[in-house]
Specification:
Layout lengths: L5 E9 L2 E6 L2 E7 L17 E4 L4 E5 L5 E3 L2 E3 L3 E7 L7 H13 L3 E7 L6 H10 L2 H4 L4 E3 L8 H7 L3 E6 L6 H7 L11 E2 L4 E2 L8 E3 L4 E5 L14 H6 L26 H7 L5 H17 L8
Length: 302
């Protein structure tokens, strides 16, 4: 029977049927036996690498390198976090929240700024200065214009043969870039609401789409949220900020330092010395206070 097993990617799931892409062919499959657990929505999900038998039964699901809960997809290589240079203006706290979610779900983030054709050279320089913290935490930054097709080829080259999710607020041109990465333009491109200064919601549902540069793209409206990921305690939060990692032979004055108001804090010293971005540190403090109040009820143990 081993010779009859075929390996592929789950690219869609509809009412108990799983559509597995193997080469250029798509197989309509069902789960077999023990894999079909009732009331378990993540038995097999879009993005899973699976083995199917000759009779189109899924008989093995390979371990996932990551999984997003909303929408439910797995094995994503990059999260493209997209904003606009203007219309609507970029919100750095929201950008950092999306980076935090990407880090939590173990997906490498990429930041894309669209609509650069609307920016003057002075405005572009100012925006680059505001975003210089991305370089310090090794997050690639792309400036593009889907309207004038500027910078899109650089993104295509970067994500070739990768599975890429897209997140960000409405009105920043995600659908336009998604359309440029697939052969058929079936996403609705919306307009920005001038009155409200925010985008109209245009994405109808999540799609797992073969990319015209190899791999797959998927729209992830859940990652447009400003909600924080389910970080359980301080130790997990601090692990989300890689730039806060200290050398093995260095430590703050207090071993349980939370890097907020304690004296002798090396993290605060690094912020003052511009070794850690003040934008990132200020965001960290906001997240810390929010989680402490809303989730970490038994705060003393942290």
């Amino acid at each position: 029977m081993g010779d009859d097993i075929i390996k592929g990617n789950v690219i869609n799931k509809i009412q108990g049927f799983y559509y597995v892409k193997v080469g250029e062919n798509i197989h309509e499959c069902k789960l077999r036996g023990i894999l079909k657990r009732k009331d378990k929505k993540d038995n097999c999900i879009v993005g899973d690498i699976v083995e199917i038998s000759e009779d189109n039964s899924i008989i093995q699901i390979y371990p996932r390198k990551n999984m997003i809960n909303r929408p439910l997809v797995s094995n994503v290589d990059y999260l493209v976090i997209q904003f606009a240079g203007k219309d609507p203006e970029i919100d750095l706290d929201r950008l950092n929240t999306l980076i935090l979610n990407s880090t939590y779900y173990k997906i490498d983030p990429i930041v894309v700024i669209n609509k650069i054709d609307l920016l003057s050279e002075e405005e572009k320089s100012s925006l680059l200065e505001r975003l210089n913290f991305l370089e310090k935490i090794n997050i690639p930054l792309f400036f593009v214009s889907t309207y004038k097709n500027i910078g899109v080829d650089e993104i295509k080259k970067f994500i070739t043969n990768k599975t890429v999710a897209f997140g960000g607020p409405s009105g920043v041109g995600k659908s336009s870039i998604l359309n440029m990465l697939q052969d058929e333009e079936d996403l609705v491109v919306g307009e920005t609401s001038k009155k409200l200064k925010r985008g109209k919601h245009t994405t109808r549902d999540s799609k797992f789409i073969p990319s015209n540069c190899g791999g797959y793209v998927i729209d992830t409206p859940g990652f447009s949220s400003i909600e924080l990921p389910p970080i359980k305690d301080f130790a997990e939060l601090i692990s989300m900020f890689k730039e806060f990692t200290l050398p093995d032979d260095s430590h703050c004055k207090f071993l349980n330092c939370h890097h907020i108001s304690e004296p002798g804090c090396l993290i605060k010293n690094m912020v003052e010395d511009n070794k850690i971005s003040k934008t990132r540190y200020d965001f960290y403090k906001k997240v810390y206070e929010k989680l402490k109040v809303e989730r970490w009820n038994n705060y003393e143990k942290y």
